[in-house]
Design brief:
Blueprint lengths: L2 H15 L2 E5 L24 E9 L2 E10 L7 E3 L24 E8 L1 H6 L4 E2 L1 H11 L7 E5 L2 H4 L3 H5 L1 E2 L2 E2 L3 E2 L3 H8 L4 E4 L17 H8 L3 E4 L12 E5 L9 E3 L2 E6 L2
Parallel strand pairs: 5-7, 6-10, 7-11, 11-12
Antiparallel strand pairs: 1-15, 2-3, 4-12, 4-14, 5-13, 8-9, 13-15
The structure holds manganese (II) ion.
C-alpha cells in the first residue's frame, strides 16, 4: 500500500474499532431551532419547517418522506465568505464553489466556559489564545478555532439561547482584535462557536460591526455557528468535517458537523 492508502486504512480501522471517536457537533433541526430575529424593517430568515409528504398512507403507501424549508443560516451551519459584503468578491466563495478539501480541517478548542458563565457578553481575546498556546502549542495554519462555552448545553430553551434583551442579544463571541490576529498571525481556516452566530450578540455595536463576519469573510475564511458538544473534544488533535449543502450560490447551509477524536 502507498503511504496515503495505509493512512486511510488506519483511519477507517480506527473508526471501526473505536480507537478514533466520532463526535457529533450538530444540534437537532426542528421547528424550535433558535434563529436570529433582525429589526422588523429587514428581511427575516425562516425557521425550520417540516411538512410530511406521505407516511405509508394513501399519499405514498410504501414510503415516508418530507418537504422542508428553512433559512441557510439555521441551527448548526456553515458561513461561506460570500455571506458578507467583505467577502462577496472572492472567487469560489459560495457553498457550491468552495473547494471540498476546505471542509476537513484540524480544530483548536478554546475553553471559555467559566468566562461565559460569569459574563454572557464575554469576548475571546488574542491574549486568551496565547495563554492556550502555552499549554497546547501554536494554532496550526489552516485550523478551525472553536470557542467552547457549552452555551447550547446550558441554555436548551430558545429564548435563553438567543438571550435577547431590550438592547440586543447577549451571547459570547470573538473580540474585534481576535479576528485579525487569527487571520494574519495564525492563518486559520475559520472561527466557530456554540451560539446562534459566529459574532457576539452585541457585535452590531462593535467597531467594525460584526468583526468576525467582516474580518473572517473579508479574508476568504469560513464560519461555523450553532455548534454543540465542543466539551467532547480535546483542546487540540481533533479533525472537524463540516460540509455545507451544495446550494448553487448558497451563502451558507445547515450541515452535519462531525469531529474525529483520538480515543483514550
Ligand atoms: Mn450564519
Amino acid at each position: 500500500m502507498t503511504g496515503s492508502a495505509s493512512t486511510l486504512a488506519d483511519l477507517i480501522a480506527g473508526i471501526q474499532t473505536g480507537g478514533i471517536r466520532v463526535v457529533d457537533l450538530t444540534q437537532p433541526l426542528h421547528a424550535s431551532t433558535p434563529i436570529l430575529q433582525l429589526p422588523p424593517e429587514m428581511g427575516q430568515t425562516w425557521k425550520f419547517e417540516l411538512q410530511e409528504i406521505s407516511n405509508f398512507d394513501s399519499r405514498g403507501p410504501l414510503w415516508y418522506w418530507n418537504n422542508f424549508k428553512t433559512g441557510e443560516h439555521t441551527g448548526t451551519h456553515f458561513d461561506a465568505p460570500g455571506h458578507w459584503i467583505s467577502g462577496k468578491d472572492y472567487p469560489n466563495n459560495l457553498t457550491d464553489t468552495i473547494p471540498p478539501a476546505k471542509f476537513i480541517a484540524p480544530a483548536c478548542v478554546i475553553d471559555c466556559v467559566k468566562e461565559a458563565e460569569k459574563n454572557p457578553d464575554f469576548l475571546l481575546s488574542p491574549d486568551h489564545i496565547k495563554a492556550w498556546e502555552k499549554t497546547h502549542g501554536r494554532i496550526p495554519k489552516g485550523a478551525w478555532v472553536l470557542m467552547r462555552t457549552d452555551w447550547a448545553l446550558k441554555r436548551p430553551q430558545p429564548d435563553e439561547y438567543i438571550n435577547a434583551q431590550a438592547d440586543g442579544c447577549h451571547t459570547p463571541g470573538p473580540h474585534p482584535e481576535l479576528v485579525p490576529f487569527l487571520v494574519k498571525e495564525r492563518e486559520v481556516i475559520g472561527f466557530g462557536n456554540e451560539t446562534v452566530g459566529t459574532d457576539a450578540g452585541q457585535a452590531f455595536t462593535f467597531d467594525p460591526p460584526f468583526p468576525c463576519h467582516s474580518g473572517m469573510h473579508g479574508a476568504n475564511k469560513y464560519g461555523l455557528a450553532g455548534l454543540i458538544h465542543l466539551d467532547q473534544l480535546p483542546p487540540a488533535g481533533a479533525i472537524v468535517i463540516a460540509a455545507p449543502l451544495k446550494i448553487v450560490r448558497g451563502s451558507g447551509s445547515p450541515c452535519r458537523v462531525i469531529a474525529l477524536v483520538p480515543g483514550k
